[in-house]
Design goal:
about 180 residues, alpha+beta, Thiol Ester Dehydrase, Chain A, two-stranded antiparallel ribbon, 8 strands, about 20% helix, about 35% strand, globular
Length: about 180
């Protein structure tokens, strides 16, 4: 299975956490690995609606962002993602304090992926939960210097699974009906 490149991950954190919208929202990508991500948001007065609680759109943005990053390492380097469906439940009002969204990919397909996120307050109390359907956008990937994967192959290629042809020293290995090497004595 292809592994994400640590150099790519470091570069990704730098680019994402210094981008205008996350800075505006006081939100940052805190952790990312295959099928999981953590996004944190420091609430401020600008996040509050007229009743003095965090606006639902802030929680929706946090869930949208966390689910995006949970799926991200499953797509090819040259692909982007867009959310095509976001569903969420607000479970408890938030007045202040940090919020943490922990997300996981539930299914990563060739064109559509599905993820969920749970948002907790500083005491670890669940305040919102949501799911997201995301669509791959071929040719719309982030332009970073490092390759995304150590072995250069995406986990899910555009419209086709990764090539899993058995090879040895660059040579294709023929398999017999039992799945063993046909060249084997």
């Amino acid at each position: 299975m292809p592994q994400p490149n640590p150099a790519y991950i470091r570069e990704l954190f730098e680019v994402i956490n210094t981008s205008p919208f996350p800075n505006h929202m006081q939100m940052r990508l805190d952790a990312i690995e295959l099928d999981k991500a953590v996004v944190k948001l420091a609430t401020a007065p600008c996040h509050l609606q007229a009743y003095g609680i965090v606006h639902g759109g802030v929680l929706a943005t946090l869930i949208d962002t966390a689910t995006f990053w949970a799926v991200y390492l499953r797509i090819p380097q040259d692909a982007g993602l867009v959310n095509i469906d976001l569903k969420l439940n607000y479970l408890k009002p938030v007045v202040d304090g940090p919020l943490t969204a922990e997300s996981r990919a539930i299914r990563s397909g060739r064109s559509l992926s599905y993820a969920e996120a749970r948002v907790a307050d500083a005491q670890g109390v669940l305040v919102a939960h949501g799911t997201s359907t995301l669509m791959q956008l071929p040719g719309r990937g982030l332009k970073l210097k490092a390759p995304k994967f150590i072995d250069g192959q995406p986990l899910i290629a555009h419209g086709k699974p990764p090539d899993r042809t058995p090879r040895c020293r660059g040579r294709t290995i023929r398999l017999d009906k039992t799945g063993h090497g046909a060249d084997r004595p």
